[in-house]
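Support request, please re-run this one:
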Amino acid sequence: MKLVNGYLGRDLQLEGSLASKDSIRIDGSYVGSISSKHMVIVGASGKVKGQIDAPVIRVDGWVEGNLTATNLVAVMDKAKIKGNIITPVGGLEMKIGSEFVGKFITNTAD
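Re-run finished. Output below.
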């Protein structure tokens, strides 16, 4: 597994646009768009208000905004998501106890 290179700690708050070729982990508060060529993790204390785009997205915390993954969105048991989830067919994993309000959209290769 590839290590996380971008990290926003619990006591940090940031607003803007974030893009990386490596993995990103958010444990603080972030407002804006996030894009990664690898993985985005929203930790249990993480709060994101904005769009997230990555091959793999894992949510343990709170997200308000659309999630678009080319491989997988993993929604853990404490996660709260308000927004649309867009993945390929078979690209959603949801744990019991998670909360999701929005649309689930699958992309199909034509």
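The first strand starts at residue 4 and ends at 8. Residues 4-107 form one domain.
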